[in-house]
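stage 2 :: seqdesign
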């Protein structure tokens, strides 16, 4: 266990350094999350995060969330993991029946927490009861998204009440405590190191869910030839090393894997 922990720690440290050196001209993975350059998500045409997600449609078999043409570098489809439908229903059930309104979603880095976040947003927008929500992606900023517009919440103490509150902050910071208090419920998406959410999880109505790695069958269902640039054979070889973590399976840049190869001491000999 000590050796595994050391390898993972080394991998994360090297990955952080690698990402700091990445050129802005490098194309992202075809399966990366939608990236928020700041707390707003809009293009020159005024298209917002709300509009992009609101216009998405779910496939008949409930396996793909289809995004219409947009001005962002977004994937045309987002695979819906089968467990997400069950998990979202469970979250809503525990919210209605047991009043579990402090919700923490965690799991290994790259397992799909951010993707599940967008699925939750889509479900919220699709609901007739509550089509608006608040999103915090930075320590000191949050945005109210609605069908009419999106607006910064400059004073959280006077923020809109009884709306869903989604939190996905990369920096070591927790959710805004005032928005947590006035929101209908709060869903925090975090890496396994969730020490910054200790106070949040001390609430008597808190509950934690863990996203598990994908099975090999689920990985191949998510691999769609029409937009995935990673050959299926490479996905299979990467699965043998990284397991069911889509971030590492669907990234087409060889440089992305250098830190893990170094940490494992393989120097790419498995290719």
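stage 2 :: out
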């Amino acid at each position: 266990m000590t050796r595994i922990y050391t390898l993972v720690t080394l991998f994360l440290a090297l990955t952080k350094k690698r990402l700091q050196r990445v050129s802005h001209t490098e194309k992202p993975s075809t399966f990366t999350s939608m990236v928020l350059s700041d707390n707003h998500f809009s293009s020159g045409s005024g298209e917002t995060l709300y509009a992009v997600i609101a216009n998405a449609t779910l496939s008949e078999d409930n396996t793909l969330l289809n995004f219409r043409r947009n001005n962002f570098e977004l994937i045309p489809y987002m695979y819906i993991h089968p467990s997400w439908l069950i998990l979202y229903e469970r979250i809503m059930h525990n919210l209605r029946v047991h009043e579990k309104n402090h919700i923490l979603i965690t799991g290994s880095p790259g397992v799909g927490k951010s993707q599940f976040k967008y699925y939750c947003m889509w479900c919220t927008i699709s609901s007739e009861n509550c089509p608006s929500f608040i999103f915090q992606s930075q320590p000191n900023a949050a945005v109210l998204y609605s069908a009419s517009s999106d607006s910064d919440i400059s004073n959280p103490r006077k923020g809109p009440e009884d709306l869903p509150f989604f939190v996905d902050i990369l920096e070591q910071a927790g959710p805004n405590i005032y928005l947590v208090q006035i929101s209908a419920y709060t869903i925090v998406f975090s890496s396994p190191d969730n020490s910054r959410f200790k106070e949040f999880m001390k609430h008597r109505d808190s509950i934690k869910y863990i996203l598990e790695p994908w099975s090999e069958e689920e990985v191949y269902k998510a691999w769609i030839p029409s937009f995935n640039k990673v050959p299926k054979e490479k996905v299979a070889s990467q699965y043998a090393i990284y397991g069911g973590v889509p971030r590492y399976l669907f990234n087409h840049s060889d440089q992305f894997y250098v830190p893990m190869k170094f940490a494992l001491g393989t120097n790419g000999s498995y290719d």
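stage 3 :: structure notes
- The longest helix spans residues 2-21.
- The domain at 34-231 is CATH 3.40.50 (Rossmann fold).
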